[in-house]
Amino acid sequence: MKVTLKIWRQPDAQAQGAMRTYELDGVSTDMSFLEMLDVLNEDLIAKGEDPVAFDSDCREGICGMCGLMINGQAHGPEVTTTCQLHMRSFKDGDEIVIEPWRADAFPVVKDLVVDRGAFDRMIQAGGFISVNTGSAPEAHSVPVPRDDAIRAFNVATCIGCGACVAACPNGSASLFMGAKITHLGELPQGQPERDSRVVGMVSQHDAEGFGGCTNIGECTAACPKEIPLDVISQLNRDLQTALRHGH
Amino acid sequence: MTDMPDTTLTSDPSHDAPGEPADDAAGYYTPGDPIRDTKAPEGPISERWQTRKFEARLVNPSNRRKLDVIIVGTGLAGGAAAATLGEAGYNVKSFCYQDSPRRAHSIAAQGGINAAKNYKEDGDSVHRLFYDTVKGGDYRSRESNVYRLAEVSTNIIDQCVAQGVPFAREYGGLLDNRSFGGVQVSRTFYARGQTGQQLLIGAYQAMERQVAAGTVEQFTRHEMLELIVVDGKARGIIARDLVTGEIETHLADVVVLASGGYGNVFFLSTNAMGSNVTASWRAHRKGAYMANPCYTQIHPTCIPVTGTHQSKLTLMSESLRNDGRIWVPKKQSDCEKDPRDIPEEDRDYYLERIYPSFGNLVPRDIASRAAKNVCDEGRGVGPAVDGVRRGVYLDFSAAIERLGRDGIEEKYDNLFDMYARITGENPYEVPMRIYPAVHYVMGGLWVDYDLQSTIPGLFVTGEANFSDHGANRLGASALMQGLADGYFVLPHTIRDYLADGPFEKIDENHPAVVEARKSVEDRVAHFLNTQGTRSVDSYHRELGNIMWEYCGMERTEDGLKKAIDLIRTLKDDFWRNVKVLGTADTLNQSLEKAGRVADFLELGELMCIDALNRRESCGGHFRAESQTEDGEALRHDDQFAYVAAWEFAGDGEAPVLHKEDLAYTAIEMKQRSYK
């Protein structure tokens, strides 16, 4: 099939970007979305034009490196990562608009590549349990109720792709943050640092320029791992508690 | 999978006469002196690690902050090491090519992590895990290393639980286990189908905590392009900032490579797009020996290739073989039919037919090769790519009848969803199609018991080294090895080396530093100035085709020699005719790939030479010349019970082969049989 691609091209962080239009023929429905872009890039190289820069690594939906706004939707029309989206979700003759994540806290590096370093810095601000290597107690010394473990796991599946931020009209990273707060907060091992964790992460979140949450819910709709919206309630509850404790 | 009986074959019905010296690779290599692991202590195997830990010298805490450690790679092996060495107080610099340490490809491991906890009280022990791993590796790994791996496995689970890794649990709140590939005990800890992700996030968070504490400095979107060796010691790296293009010099007292495996030499593999051999290969060219490079693990249950646009392959958990039945049509003329219209009597359940006792649960290498054979016969299914149908059915209809659709959903729903998303077919209604794909490499840089390479001050951990899996890795053991190396082995052994430091400061103008830097700059300039006609990917794809055809599931003397010729021709063309657009001072993904493919071309040739030299079949390495009358792999312990450690001898020069003899004192060598 044949598609018309409108792609954001921006040579580097400082340069002014613009949408460019490309026609691509011979697209197979079995191709993944990123393989379609690989084919476009091979065409561009053959013509002597700079290929489109985009991020991807595992291409199996788990590393979180890929992420594009496709026709205005983070990761496109399916509930999955960009790398797992396939061209059978599109029709012959479709026009597809491809942009990078749009958020102040994720500056564009080049074309469709953005800088998500803010997520690392939020984890540095408290998204961990302080336990030095070798100092851990026997694994069975602390039982964890099965339901708590399942809840912790479900939200720990966050891949840090940033779709939640890109989808949010406020550019908030509350879903990302709530997922980490809930993951560690559900487990007995996470309790000693529960207050300092939420305060640290929220402060860093705000310092990075992410917006506030106004319960719109676009984040959870765009999340390829279906992190539920109630992690943000947990986040707010934990923050209240920490502040009450005098943090 | 269940365990395989040990059957020691008394006769030797292979094509080769027993004991006959074989030197297929004569002319392709230069024989070198034997090599020996001088660090493994003597004494009972169960005491060696304790002995080494005690004998390894200590570094005073106040001296640690004067010692600089570079770690390349942030997967389980690199991330865990960065966290642990940071906690200990060393100055750590951590490098990864991705935009965050959390992206490293350890994240994609699905199944689980082995540990000899014996929580099921089913007879597991350190010794049994050790035994299973040596046997699974087809008696081509080093006993001392494997024993240590089994020994520290239990500490890993304790550490990860304390970090908040949400392992699966039973109703009583204790940890759940399942059994996995080739063993009879339940010792695999797991977090649904995302164990690698959860373990990596644990290591990543521990590392980020050290970044906040100021002991670890992280360099993301940086790629190591050269090793700096001064007076015979590894003293730093040259790295390229992938965003600004700046070529940077980073000096240190010690360098750790935790840069993963090189399965992408096959172009199509289950590795991440960026996984590459460059860090290891640059070190190899500077004097680090490469061990057993031909040992490749090919996983039988991957989604088949659909066309020439294919960029990577996706693995589906091996657990599917517990309930799915594998078949192809008996007649070629049926291969295009809807499988549901092919009656039972026209189906060939070839694994059940050839291996009646293990059936669909034969080990990975056997299942993979059998799939290749039926497709080579023209009985493959699915779309034809380059004229051949490369796929076999994995059919759940019997299991759905037996367990109901609900029963199958409960067990495999996420895998069925993934399959449906990628193929557009509903596996509840139409049989899945699968085909083997390159998944893991057992080969890697040679290291001694301390995980130190043949370059003093260069340590290698995780998949990047060769040490623990012999010729075949058992399921759920890659995660175990990565974390064992990173958390519990390297931090002890590296201190013995660092006890002599801090080493004399070196200047950025030191001739060795200038030379390393210049070689990187020259290479970058060469790629951009060549202005040839072929894209980097087209070379990579062609190399992958050569490797898959001649150095894949089945290797022959003639095929390997042909591959070496083809690779040499391709390499020459690559250096003269590659087309890399853009500039060096921005994000330039074609330029990044060009450097990686240049190194894959050299590695591919060495893999073929290694495979040519090893005229035996062992684990993932199958030489058609060395098989039993039944077509099974046949080892030649009298000739090949050694690690092949290859020394780089210069461009265009034959590599030098150093042999490390493998001695088995705790376990008796036996031939595998699965009939």
Automatic annotation (TrEMBL), chain A:
Give the EC number(s) listed in the UniProt record.
1.3.5.1
* Presence of keyword Metal-binding: yes
What keywords were assigned to this record? 2Fe-2S, 3Fe-4S, 4Fe-4S, Iron, Iron-sulfur, Metal-binding, Oxidoreductase, Tricarboxylic acid cycle
The Swiss-Prot or TrEMBL record lists the needed cofactor(s) as: [4Fe-4S] cluster; [2Fe-2S] cluster; [3Fe-4S] cluster
Q: Which SUPFAM superfamilies match?
A: 2Fe-2S ferredoxin-like, alpha-helical ferredoxin
Domain of life (superkingdom): Bacteria
- 4Fe-4S ferredoxin-type domain segment(s): 149-178
Check the record and name the Pfam families matching this protein.
Answer: Fer2_3, Fer4_8
- Classification via InterPro entries: 2Fe-2S_ferredoxin-like_sf (IPR036010), 2Fe2S_fd_BS (IPR006058), 4Fe4S_Fe-S-bd (IPR017896), 4Fe4S_Fe_S_CS (IPR017900), Beta-grasp_dom_sf (IPR012675), Helical_ferredxn (IPR009051), SDH/FRD_Iron-Sulfur (IPR050573), Succ_DH/fum_Rdtase_Fe-S (IPR004489)
Under which main EC class is this enzyme filed?
oxidoreductase
Please tell me whether the keyword Metal-binding is annotated for this protein.
yes
Sequence similarity: Belongs to the succinate dehydrogenase/fumarate reductase iron-sulfur protein family.
Under what name is this protein listed? succinate dehydrogenase
Which species? Nocardioides caricicola
